[in-house]
Amino acid sequence: MRTPIRLFGRSLVREESGAILPVAVLFLGVVLGMGALAVDVTRGFVARDQLQAAADSAALAGASLVFDQAASRAAALQYGNLNAPPGHGNVVSASDVVFGTWNPATRTFAAGGANPNAVQTTARMTQAQGNALQTALASAVGFGSFDVTASAIATGDNGAQWDVVLVQDVTGSFRGELPDAVTADQTLLSCINNRARPQSLIGGVAFTGYGHHVEPLAELSSGFQSIYNSFGNLRSCGNRGMPACSGTHIGAGLQYGLDQFDNYDRANGGNANAGGPPRKRAMIVVSDGEPSCRRPACRTSTQDLRNQAVARADAAAAAGISVFTVLYNENHSQGASNFLESLIRGDGTFHETPDPRRLTDLLETICNAQLPLRLVQ
Questions:
Q1: Distance from C-alpha of 302 to C-alpha of 309, rounded to nearest angstrom
Q2: For residue 149, what are the β-bridge partners?
Q3: pTM attached to this predicted model
Q4: Residues 235, 280: contact at Cβ < 8 Å?
Q5: Confidence of residue 12 (pLDDT cuts 50, 70, 90)
Q6: Is the peptide bond before 104 cis (omega within 30 degrees of 0)?
């Protein structure tokens, strides 16, 4: 049976006028050109995916430091260019990092603004930048290179101001692990400083059988360094400037945290934030056990200490303050786990570990959940 292709071939051979030969050459050129374009377009799609990964990385890195624009831009450039397609140099430049406001309701990005909450990045492989995607085959038909671009928008702010009092156990039983806890505390403070709005409030409390102020609530923009340094100087109970060793009174720590919120509100006209984003408030308790009483300094029963802790957690919930608890549970005490978990309120969560080195991870988990980084476009 004769196929159309065989007949076409024979007609070319038998054509005596030679008029079909130019048509055949043209036909072959078209077929080869389409094949070349197909190969290079596929390479273009691969490069586009790689470039999108670079833009995404740049946006997320920038969003993690969105309220410090110099640091944010530096991070965006670093991570964007680290993830660039190989052999194309820098694909993100300083002008490709734009700060602005992301409106989740309308899903729109507006460049500029006094308090940006998002970063838009663009990654480029273009002739203008001298790093366009060079073609492998299509240059034979006049296509020497492709321009490829990709963009992304990421936000590191959920639209709320996050006010936090960090309540740190400094009892004698926590003495050996306190340096790990301090590192975790400072990591949490840095995360909040990098992601929360500058108007957010942070404060600190150290407690044993008594509460002890570390730093009163202050805005991130003015108070971060002071509280960061204060937590770095924390020592276990009995040391100079620390409360006496007298058991574990979580209720006292919570009460001092409540007092910090109350004192701030009285001094600043209440918890209203007219014209701004809503405030989310929280106390984060870091401890190594459930309430206990050490006599003679402590003159109450362990059960009373437990009741006071529950009552203070309830008071926090009534005031719109979430309670998070983080337990260093060296002895895998189920009683301690159950009690610390019973204190969570509002948006709070419970976390525990038998390894003090993991306290940093747990506090970062809280920050990441409350102030998530996410690609929005």
A1: 11
A2: 124
A3: 0.75
A4: no
A5: very low
A6: no
350: tokens are 């419970």
- Which of the following CATH numbers is that of domain 161-375: 3.30.870.10, 3.40.50.410, 3.40.30.10, 3.40.630.30? 3.40.50.410
DSSP element (H, E) containing 211:
strand 211-219
Mean pLDDT of the chain: 84
Between 280 and 294, residue with greater pLDDT: 280
Structure tokens at 209: 């059988």
Q: List the alpha helices (DSSP H) in the chain.
A: 4-14, 20-63, 69-82, 178-195, 220-232, 250-267, 302-318, 334-342, 359-370
pLDDT by residue (tens digit) across 287-324?
999 888 765 555 678 888 999 999 999 999 999 999 99
Q: For the chain, give every domain's residue range.
A: 22-155, 161-375
Q: In the chain, what are the helix, strand and coil shares in percent, each to the nearest 5?
A: 45, 20, 35
C-alpha distances in Å from residue 330, one per residue of 92, 302, 353, 355, 356? 47, 20, 7, 7, 8
- For residue 127, CA distances in Å to 51, 270, 285 come to 15, 58, 55
> Three-state SS for 157?
coil
307: tokens are 């009741």
Residue type, 281: R
∠ at Cα 238 (232, 240), nearest 5°? 60
Q: Could you tell me which of 205, 123, 146 has the C-alpha nearest to residue 170?
A: 205
Residue pair 192/217 in contact by the 8 Å Cβ criterion = no
pLDDT tens-place string over residues 168-214: 999 999 999 999 999 999 999 999 988 888 889 999 999 998 788 88
Least confident of 11-25, 246-260, 316-330: 11-25
State the number of CA atoms in the 13 A half-sphere of 305 facing the CB.
24
Phi/psi of residue 51, nearest 5 degrees: -70, -35
Of 151, 148, 152, 153, nearest in space to 48 by CA = 148
